[in-house]
Amino acid sequence: MSVDLRIRRDDEPQTVTAVEFFDEYLPIRFVTETDIVASTERLDLRPLAVRVGDAVWVVWRDTTLHVARSATTTPEPVETWDLTEARLADIVTDQVTPVGLMTSGELVLERQRIARVMDWWLVWRALLDGRTVYAPGEVTVDDDLSRSFTLHDPLAAMRAFLETNGYLHLRGVFDPAAMEQVSVDMDTAAPTYAADDGNSWWATLADGTRRVVRMQRFDEHSPTTSDLLASTTYESLAAIPGCGHSSAWRSPNHVEALFKPLGVRDGISDIPWHKDCSLGRHSYQCCGLTVGISVTGAGPTSGQLRVIAGSHRALVWPSLLDPTTLGLPDVPLATETGDVTLHLSCTMHMAQPPTERERRVLYTGFALPPPDPVAAAVANRRLLATARESAPMTTSQSAARH
C-alpha cells in the first residue's frame, strides 16, 4: 500500500457556497452513497443547525440522513454552528477542521457541544472524500507492535511495518556524543528565545516558573543539528516510505527542539492524543513523515511518545478523541539516546507527561513532493527564495550567533 493519501491539489478550484453544499451536494449524496451513509450509523448523530449568514440548515438522522432549511418540519437542533461562507468553504474543501477553528478561536457554537459538530464533520468528510467512517475491527495491525529496527534492516521490512502500523522505532541512528552536544546547544539557545517571538512555545510549571518548551528553527542555533540534517544518515530516512518524501518540501522551520519538563501546569508541552493533520489539509498533505530524534532517552516516566497503531487508516476524529474507543493498540515507544521515531502525519499519537526525568527531543520531518510539475516549479521558486534569505553566514557571524 502507499502512504500517499492525497486526493486534492492546491491548484484546483476551492470555492463552494452554502446553497450548493446543503441544497445540492448533501441531499444527493445522502441518497446515492449508501455504503458511506451506512458507515455513519455508529455515530451519535443529533440534529445540528448550521447558520451561514441569514440562512439556517438542519442536518439530522432518523432511518437515514437528511438536510433541509430550518423550518417547523425539521427537528429541534441540539447545537447551532455559526459559519461564514468563506469558513464553510474551507471546511468543505478540507482547508480547516472544527479542531482548527477551535484552536484559532473561530469555532462559534451556541451550546459549546463540539461533539455534535465533530460527528457531523465525519459524515461530511466521508462523503466528500469517498471514505467510510471507521468502525472497530476494520483495521488490522502487526502482531509484534513492540518491534524495533536499525538502518541495517531490509528496507522492505521497515516500509511494510510503517505502511501497516503508521510508525517506526529505529535504534542507534545517531551518535550519543552528538546528542550530548545538541543538548548543550539547547541550553545555550534557550535564553535567546522570548515568549512573544513567534518562534517558541512556553509553559508554566507547578512552581510558577515560565519555561520555553519548543524552540523553532533550532538548526540556526546548533551547528551540530544543522550538520545532522544534512547527513546522508538523516536523508536515508526519507526513502523508507517509498513515496518520494524529501526535506526539500518542508517549511523553512526545518527542526524544532523540545524540552519536556516536569510539572507543567499551563501551556502546550505534553500534547494529548491527536493526528498532525488535525487542524486541516489532510487530503492535500498526508501522509507526511514526522521524525523524532531522541536527544535523551525516553520511557514511561520520562515523556515517551505513544502511538495508536493503524490509526492512520481510520477516518475518526483527528483530535479530542478517547482512543480506547477505537479498538486499536496503544503502543509506547521507549527510546534510547540517538534513537529515532517515525510516524505518519495521520497516525494518532501523544506525548506522555514525564514524572521523574525531563526529556529532550528534536522534531523534524519529510514532506511528499508536489503532485505535478507546475506545483513543483512553484515550490522550487519558494525554496530558492528561502535559500537566498538564509544564505550561509561567515565564520565570524556564525560564532557571534552561536
Low-pLDDT sequence parts: 376-402
Give the DSSP E fraction (strand runs of 2 or more residues): 15-25%
Q: Percent range for helical residues?
A: 25-40%
Instruction: Please state the average pLDDT score.
Output: 91
What structural category arises from helix and sheet content?
Answer: alpha+beta
In this structure, how is the largest beta sheet organized?
Answer: 8 strands, antiparallel
What order do the helices and strands come in, and which of them pair?
Blueprint: H1 18-32, H2 34-39, E1 48-52, E2 55-61, E3 65-69, E4 79-83, H3 85-92, H4 98-103, E5 108-109, H5 114-129, H6 155-165, E6 167-170, H7 176-189, E7 200-205, E8 210-215, H8 223-229, H9 232-236, E9 256-260, E10 264-267, H10 282-285, E11 289-294, E12 305-308, E13 330-333, E14 340-344, E15 349-351, E16 359-366, H11 373-389, H12 395-401
Parallel strand pairs: 1-4
Antiparallel strand pairs: 1-2, 2-3, 4-5, 6-14, 7-8, 7-10, 8-9, 9-16, 11-14, 11-16, 12-13, 12-15
